[in-house]
Every structure is written in C-alpha cells, then in structure tokens.
C-alpha cells in the first residue's frame, strides 16, 4: 500500500501543498486532476525527494517503508518509478548504459547481457520504438513522443511496482498517445502495478477499466470520485464541478 | 577502431613535418610540428610536453589531444592562410597548474575551432587555463570559435580566461566559457531510476569526457577516469 498522510510541501518557504491525504492499495489506479499550477507535479517530484521541495509535515510510506528520509535511489529500489512530463536530455549516456548500470546496482547477481539484449528488443517492439534508440543518449535530440516512449523503455526494463505518470499524455499526437496507452495497459496486465496518473484529459484513462479520481485545488484534494468524475470534468471544467460539489454541502 | 589497429607515429626531435596523415602520434620532448595537407591526429600526453603547431596554408587538420596535466604547460598554434583547424582538447588536471593556449591567426580565410573540456582529478588540484586567441591586423574572412568548459566535481577549482584579441573588424569570432558542477536535475533523474549517487556522478563524468574524446582513448583513460574524485 502507498500512503500519503497530512503532507505539507514547501519550496523556498512557500507552502505549495497543505495536509494532503491519499491512499493507493496495491494494484489500484488513482488519477490526480486539477487546474494548472495546483501542485500535481510538485507531489510527484516530492515523492522522490526532488531537492527543490521540502516535506514540511506529514509522511509518505510505501509497503511500510517511510520514504521521507530515503534518497531517490532508495525510493526507486523499493519499486517506485516516475515517468516525467518533460524528460530531461542527458548527452553522453546511452539508454543501454543507464539500464545496465541500474540493473547491475539493484541486483545481487551480475546481469546476463544476452537476456538483457533480448528483453530490450522485445520491449522496443511493444512500444513501437526503433531498436537503435537503445544506443542513443538518454532523450537527447528526441521528439516529445520519442521521449515518452523512451521513458516507457526504462519502465518495462526496470519493472517497478508503483508507477507515477506525470502528464505523460501532454504533447503527444494521436498515434503516440495510442502507443503509450496500449503499452501502459499491457504493462498493467503483465505486472499489475499501482499507478498514480496525473493528467488533464481522459485519453489515457480510456485504456483502464477502473480507477479513482481526485481533484487537487489550492494545495489539497477537494473532491474524489469514480471515473464518471473525470468524464464530467472533461465536459464542464474544474471550476463548475468544484463549485457544484460545494453547493451540495451548503 | 582502437589504438592497437591505428597507424602510429613516433615523432623524435624538436621539429617534425607532417603531411596527409591519419595517426596516433607520440612525442618525447617539447616539439614543433609543421602541418600540411589533410591530417587527423590523436595524442595522449602524460609527460606535459609543450607543443607548437604551425599551419602555414591550405591545411585541413583535426587534433584530438588528451593531457594528463601535472605541471605548467603550453600549446601554441600559428595559423596562416586558408586553413581548417579543429582542436578537441581534454585536460585531466592533478596539482596546481597553469595551461596556456595561444592561438595566432596571421592570415586570411581560416576556420579555427578550439574546444576544451577540463576536469580536476582530486580536491587538492586547481587549474588555471588561459586561452589567448589573436587575430592579427590586416587579416580578413576568418572564423574563430573558442568553446571552453570545466566540470567541477569536488572542492577543487577551475579558472578559465577566454581572451580574444581582435585587431581587425573582418572576423567572425565567438567565445563560450562554462564552469559548472553536476547538473542537479540530471543527478535527480538518474537516481530516480535506481542509480546510486556515486555511480550517477561517475556516469556524468564519463559523459563529459567522452563528449570530446574519441572512444579510442578509452583503454588509456579508464584508470584516470576511475580515480577522479
């Protein structure tokens, strides 16, 4: 189980997230939606302890491990994985080198390079990525769609049990969106991970049959519901939904 | 390709003439090289020999030079007319040293690109790189680029002085200097994928070095790179 309790996040003494609570059981899919600038990406980055953000209060746990005091490396090795909205480009380090080193450091036994290469080829087919990308520098000189597929390559090789998708659907054309959606669905069917999806749209959600939706506003969750809530928001927008919901309690 | 199966050229004596050569060169004392024709040269210098390169005219030369710097050292380039010259220089510095790079363009119609990447081997080291580029009076149609970068991996210091002295208006010149430590976003990205901080730093050092050094140097450089703190 993944759990966020009473989480307050600060950056440069400014409070960005206040008293956030969220529980995701193993295998569940949760969707975080909300207007721009409400702190959705901040939460994703803070789970991995991005140096720009400070946990001022509260806790983040995964399978009874308190993540507050762990390094990004330790958090990753517990099985968490962050798919970035804008994946960084790193010139001079290839995908193969990155994944080889990550697996070698994580596992006690040396990597079987033949099996590793076979698996890379297999994954490239699933995500419709040319095999040459394995030997290209991390996200370097790649288009937006290629970068997202490149991140999926890392996902399938590292096989995390908890995935955070930070607006992975932004900037994708229809075909790339389909490939990414189908690849994520396939990954879910194969490994049944927990997933936290941050998105503004329903395109990616259509690939999953069941999920819970949370609306983030002013630094905390103001509304939760089923997939119908996501559909409603796409039709009428955040403001209408949040206002209507508040009226129920007046 | 590896150094083993490359053409190797051992230059003996203070002055040598090289023409139309593709080779891994070794030198054993301070040397002046007169270059002509089309040349691709590689040099790995652990003895810190001073080097003077003369390109009088019509020479197309690429030089990939690795210096393991342990004392003060200089490299002089004298460029005449109608030359294309690219230097890709890596300095791994150990100790407190000065490296002086002098480029004199005295003729017309040259393309000169100077790229240098600098890293200190340990926290006790400091390097002062002075790059003096001069384009002399009454010259024209020269393109001249200085691109100098230092990666600070520890408490050691790197100083770069990118001087350009233009005595003519008819020149296109550009100079870029960056001295930085590891990019925190790159470190964060790598560590979120399960790479340890130390390994991530090692990978970024390698990326910095091999952005300028041909992979043929890998066997020679391995030990030096592992030792970088």
Largest sheet of chain B: 13 strands, parallel
The count of strands of chain B amounts to: 13
Multimerization status: heterodimer
Distance between the termini of chain A: 34 Å
Structural summary, described in words:
- The complex is a heterodimer of chains A (250) and B (229).
- Chain A is α/β, with parallel strands linked by helices and 250 residues long.
- Chain A has a single domain, classed as P-loop containing nucleotide triphosphate hydrolases (Rossmann fold), CATH 3.40.50.
- Chain A contains eight helices and twelve strands.
- A six-stranded mixed β-sheet of chain A has the order 6-9-10-3-11-12, sandwiched between helices. A four-stranded antiparallel β-sheet of chain A has the order 2-1-4-5, covered by helices on one side. Chain A has a two-stranded antiparallel sheet with strand order 7-8.
- In chain A, strand 11 and strand 12 form a beta hairpin.
- Chain A is globular.
- Chain B is mostly beta strands and 229 residues long.
- Chain B has one domain.
- Chain B is 14% helix and 56% strand.
- In chain B, helix 1 crosses helix 2.
- The radius of gyration of chain B is 18 Å and the shape is globular.
- Chain B starts with 7 loop residues before the first strand and ends with a helix.
- The mean pLDDT of chain B is 93.
- At the A-B interface, helix 2, strand 7 and helix 3 of A face helix 1 and helix 2 of B.
Summarize the structure.
Chain A has 250 residues and is an alpha/beta fold.
Secondary structure blueprint with pairings:
The complex is a heterodimer of chains A (250) and B (229).
Chain A: E1 2-11, E2 14-24, E3 29-33, H1 40-47, E4 54-62, E5 65-66, H2 72-77, E6 80-83, E7 90-94, H3 95-106, H4 113-126, E8 137-138, H5 144-158, E9 162-166, H6 174-191, E10 194-198, E11 212-217, E12 220-225, H7 227-236, H8 238-248
Chain B: E1 8-11, E2 15-27, E3 31-45, E4 51-57, E5 59-69, E6 73-81, E7 84-93, E8 96-105, E9 111-120, E10 126-135, E11 142-151, E12 157-166, E13 171-180, H1 184-192, H2 197-210, H3 218-227
Parallel strand pairs in B: 1-2, 2-3, 3-4, 3-5, 4-6, 5-7, 6-8, 7-9, 8-10, 9-11, 10-12, 11-13
């Amino acid at each position: 189980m993944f759990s966020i309790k009473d989480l307050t996040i600060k950056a440069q003494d400014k409070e960005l997230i206040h008293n956030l609570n969220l529980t995701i059981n193993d295998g569940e899919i949760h969707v975080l939606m909300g207007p721009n600038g409400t702190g959705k990406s901040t939460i994703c980055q803070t789970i991995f302890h991005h140096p720009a953000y400070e946990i001022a209060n509260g806790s983040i746990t995964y399978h009874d491990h308190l993540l507050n005091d762990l390094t990004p490396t330790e958090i990753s090795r517990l099985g968490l994985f962050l798919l970035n909205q804008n994946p960084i480009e790193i010139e001079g380090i290839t995908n193969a080198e990155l994944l080889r080193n990550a697996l070698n450091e994580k596992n006690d036994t040396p990597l079987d390079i033949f099996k590793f290469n076979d698996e890379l080829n297999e994954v490239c087919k699933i995500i419709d990525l040319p095999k040459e990308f394995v030997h290209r520098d991390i996200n370097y000189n790649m288009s937006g769609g290629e970068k997202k597929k490149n991140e999926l390559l890392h996902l399938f090789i590292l096989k995390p049990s908890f995935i955070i998708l930070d607006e992975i659907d932004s900037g994708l054309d229809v075909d790339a969106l389909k490939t990414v959606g189908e690849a994520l669905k396939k990954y879910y069917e194969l490994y049944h991970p927990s997933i936290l999806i941050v998105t503004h749209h329903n395109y990616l959600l259509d690939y999953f049959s069941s999920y819970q939706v949370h609306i983030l506003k002013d630094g905390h969750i103001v509304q939760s519901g089923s997939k119908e809530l996501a559909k409603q928001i796409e039709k009428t927008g955040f403001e209408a939904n949040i206002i209507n919901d508040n009226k129920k309690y007046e | 390709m590896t150094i083993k199966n490359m053409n190797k050229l051992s230059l003996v004596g203070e002055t040598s003439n090289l023409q139309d050569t593709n080779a891994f060169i070794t030198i054993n004392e301070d040397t002046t090289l007169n270059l002509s024709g089309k040349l691709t040269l590689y040099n790995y210098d652990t003895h810190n020999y001073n080097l003077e390169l003369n390109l009088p005219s019509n020479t197309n030369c690429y030089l990939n030079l690795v210096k393991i710097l342990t004392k003060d050292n200089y490299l002089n380039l004298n460029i005449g007319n109608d030359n294309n010259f690219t230097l890709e220089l890596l300095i791994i510095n150990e100790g407190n040293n000065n490296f002086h790079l002098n480029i004199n363009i005295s003729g017309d119609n040259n393309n000169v690109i100077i790229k240098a990447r600098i890293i200190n081997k340990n926290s006790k080291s400091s390097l002062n790189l002075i790059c003096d580029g001069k384009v002399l009076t009454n010259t024209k149609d020269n393109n001249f680029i200085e691109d100098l970068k230092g990666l600070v991996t520890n408490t050691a210091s790197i100083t770069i002085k990118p001087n350009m002295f233009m005595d003519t208006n008819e020149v296109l010149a550009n100079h870029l200097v960056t001295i930085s430590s590891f990019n925190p976003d790159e470190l964060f990205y790598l560590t979120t994928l399960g790479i340890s901080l130390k390994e991530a730093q090692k990978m970024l050092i390698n990326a910095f070095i091999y952005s300028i050094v041909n992979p043929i140097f890998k066997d020679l450089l391995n030990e030096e790179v592992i030792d970088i703190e």
